[in-house]
Specification:
It is a single chain. By secondary structure, the protein is an alpha+beta fold. It folds into 2 domains: 17-287, Distorted Sandwich (Beta-galactosidase, Chain A, domain 5); 303-594, Alpha-Beta Barrel (TIM Barrel). 17% of the residues lie in helices and 32% in strands. It contains 14 helices and 36 strands. The strands form 7 sheets. Strands 6, 7, 8, 9, 12, 13, 15, 16, 20 and 21 form a 10-stranded antiparallel beta sheet that branches. It has a 7-stranded parallel beta sheet with strand order 27-26-25-24-23-22-28. A hairpin with a 5-residue loop joins strand 30 (610-617) and strand 31. Helix 8 (418-434) packs parallel to helix 9. It is globular. 53% of the residues are buried.
Length: 702
């Protein structure tokens, strides 16, 4: 057997015994990665300059039935290579992205299972590290089941953390700011009582992206990239040692991942800097994803949209047509309640508003049969995705929207019946093509069929990719709700424009809401992996629902600023048309602000406190600024050195008025204009829970 192994290793291109001593290193700028193999145990460590980011931390995979890569391993060899390239995203925050890293690949084998090989691939960037496990094609390993991933992140101290619980099915929690030693899911869940936790058994597990701030001035973000054919990674926090250990979301029977060699895991990512804005500017996660798999992308169009949605959230109308599926008249027809929002006349009203204000799209929820008994209905088929209610006339709406130059956005709620949706995908997208829907918003509220799979498990991870692939075949873009949080797959599937997977603006309509600091945390956490359909733009911030008890905990000016701070190529103007018509001067910013950009600058940022972002419109000499704060009033100076030198711009400033306050006077704002240049400085006054939005347009003839 030893002789056979010797010749097999030679054929595979490896020496029969390890020739490369450890430690092995790779570096880029201030970031250094060190790999060690001591007593057969592989570890890695990361430093930033002279500061420790991650101390020596375990690596490995455990398999069901044993003989995984969790025992003593032997080093076969290693390679280092340098890559420096530039690529252009189909859409995004910048026009060009530099992909510059040093890659260290470490080849290991398992002596306890002769012939089994594992590669660990590290990529070191100037702003962090990504690494993953790769299992090459090999005779000694076919099908296998991962029971645990042994990856650790041994942090050097008890950092300040911004975290949510490691729930298997939702990421829609409020963020807690605490030391790692204080992580306690039970207490956090009590603070978000509107979320029913189904299965999150580890009281010390947190979701990623996890944002950390060290007392020595380092900012560290831990997440993953390219999550394909694998469950989401959560992190168990050892509160005494500050060591984080990977926890994979299981399937319905407790297994983690079913794989076959050759295969590979997602990248584990560590973004690090001594400046908070660098975390938001990082493109490390996008760079770790594969280039676009789509043969053409010219049909993919980012857009703003309005829609029949917020009015249901606040109780003005309803998704369902009748009170229940059993509410029938003598002829066997559903008896309407009179509160159905997705009716032809109402949809035309939104189309008219969109056309009048140069908004490209209109979303309609509740248009198809099945909403009467959909919530919590754990059954194979709830919706068929092609049958409208009697008061929603598909052809008439198509013709009307086309006459107004407006595109319709489809809504496909599945009620968790993911298998049913997959069976109807082709039919559903053919329906969209036939009736002129270039984009779809999907939903997965409830327990997942088949078997009660978890939203963040391997099966659903693959389902979301299958949806993106089928949508691409029909030239449809996708906005997925109740999905796994993003990991940069929008590079590989650029028709996957946006998603939810986080606590959006809607929670202000039906729950305890979100505090003013929420939007200053989200870019450092949920948005690290990709865009979010946050649904900004609420103008009626109080007394918008029957009880009068709910409120949106921002000022109106901050709602405008969110269009710049919270990036998405698919942005909703979420409020009702009549609430926008009451403030046409403020709505002008929503009309003007783009959703696709050539450049982005993070002017100032501190997680949980404030963010100021500036972006350049795609293909235009126009810039837009958004500045937001938490519950504290703040003065934010902004140097305008991002503007082209020697040119004059008209700055239109949408700001909190002097008496603005998210609690006492949220709708108080003022709009001023002034001519500025690259040598100018603006001083923005942000009210408690407030913000400011600014457009910069060239002065004609100058």
């Amino acid at each position: 057997m030893k002789k056979q192994l010797f010749f097999w290793l030679l054929a595979a291109g490896f020496p029969a015994a390890a020739q490369t001593p450890t430690p092995l290193t790779a570096r880029q700028g201030k970031v250094k990665l060190t790999f060690m193999l001591a007593a057969g145990q592989p570890t890695y460590a990361v430093t930033y300059g002279t500061k420790a980011v991650v101390n020596a931390s375990r690596l490995g995979l455990a398999f069901e039935g044993g003989q995984g890569f969790d025992g003593p391993l032997t080093l076969l060899g290693s390679e280092v290579k340098d890559v420096d390239e530039t690529w252009q995203p189909v859409w995004g925050e910048v026009k060009n992205i530099r992909n510059h890293y040093q890659q260290l690949t470490v080849h290991l084998r398992q002596p306890a299972a002769p012939g089994r090989r594992l590669d660990v691939v590290f990529r070191v960037f100037a702003d962090g590290v990504g690494f993953r496990y790769e299992l090459p094609r090999q005779l000694a390993l076919g099908n296998f089941v991962v029971s645990d991933e042994l990856t650790e992140f041994a942090l050097p101290a008890d950092h300040q953390a911004f975290w949510i619980p490691g729930d298997y099915d939702t990421n829609e929690y409020l963020y807690t700011k605490s030391r790692l030693s204080a992580v306690d899911n039970a207490q956090q869940v009590k603070a978000s009582t509107e979320i029913a936790v189904r299965d999150a058994p580890d009281a010390q597990a947190v979701a990623t992206p996890l944002m950390l701030k060290a007392d020595d001035g380092l900012y560290v973000n831990i997440h993953e990239a390219a999550q394909v054919d694998y469950p989401a990674m959560q992190l168990h926090v050892d509160r005494a040692s500050h060591r984080l250990t990977a926890r994979l979301v299981p399937n319905a029977v407790g297994s983690k991942a079913f794989l076959r060699a050759p295969s590979r895991t997602p990248w584990r990512t560590i973004i690090v800097s001594d400046k908070a804005p660098d975390i938001l500017a990082s493109k490390l996660i996008l760079n770790l994803n594969e280039p676009s798999k789509l043969p053409t992308t010219d049909w993919i169009k980012p857009m703003k949209f309005v829609g029949v949605w917020w009015e249901m959230q606040i109780g003005k109308s309803d998704w369902k047509y009748a009170n229940s599926a059993d509410t029938l008249d003598a002829q066997g027809h559903l008896i309407p309640t009179g509160r159905h929002g997705a009716n032809t006349a109402n949809v035309k009203r939104y189309i008219d508003f969109a056309a009048a204000h140069h908004i490209a799209g209109v979303l309609v929820e509740g248009w198809n049969v099945g909403w009467e008994d959909w919530f919590g209905a754990w059954k194979e088929q709830v919706f068929d995705f092609v049958t409208p209610y009697p008061d929603f006339h598909v052809q008439e709406i198509k013709d009307y929207a086309q006459s107004k130059g407006v595109q319709m956005i489809m809504h496909n709620e599945t009620s968790g019946s993911a298998t049913s949706y997959e069976q109807h995908l082709d039919t559903a997208y053919q329906f969209m093509n036939r009736f002129g829907y270039p984009s779809v918003k999907t939903g997965y509220v409830g327990r997942i069929i088949p078997r009660g799979e978890h939203h963040d498990g391997q099966w659903m991870s693959n389902h979301f990719v299958r949806v993106a692939e089928m949508a691409a075949k029909h030239h449809v873009t996708v906005d997925m709700h109740e999905s796994v949080r993003p990991t940069g797959l929008s590079r590989t599937y650029p028709n996957w424009l946006s998603g939810e997977a986080g606590r959006g603006n809607e929670y202000n309509a039906f729950s305890i809401g979100s505090p003013p600091e929420h939007e200053t945390i989200m870019p450092f956490t949920r948005f690290i992996g990709g865009p979010m359909d946050y649904t900004p733009g609420i103008f009626k911030l109080q007394n918008f629902e029957p009880t009068g008890k709910r409120s949106v905990r921002t000022t109106l000016a901050k709602q405008l600023a969110l269009y710049v701070v919270l990036y998405s190529p698919l942005q909703m103007a979420a409020d009702l048309p009549e609430n926008y018509e009451a403030h046409p001067d403020a709505f002008k910013f929503i009309e003007d602000v783009p959703v696709d950009w050539d450049d982005t600058r993070i002017v100032a940022a501190e997680p949980g406190d404030y963010i100021t972002t500036v972006r350049k419109a795609k293909g235009e000499n126009e810039w837009y600024l958004g500045s937001i704060t938490d519950e504290n009033a703040r003065t934010q100076p902004v140097k305008l050195d991002f503007l082209p030198p020697g040119q004059r711009f008209e700055a239109t400033i949408y700001a909190d008025a002097k008496d603005a306050d998210w609690q006492k006077n949220p709708a108080s704002y003022q709009i001023t204009k002034q001519v500025v240049t690259s040598k100018s400085t603006l001083t923005l006054r942000l009210a408690p829970g407030g913000g400011a939005a600014v457009s910069f347009k060239p002065v004609a003839g100058k």
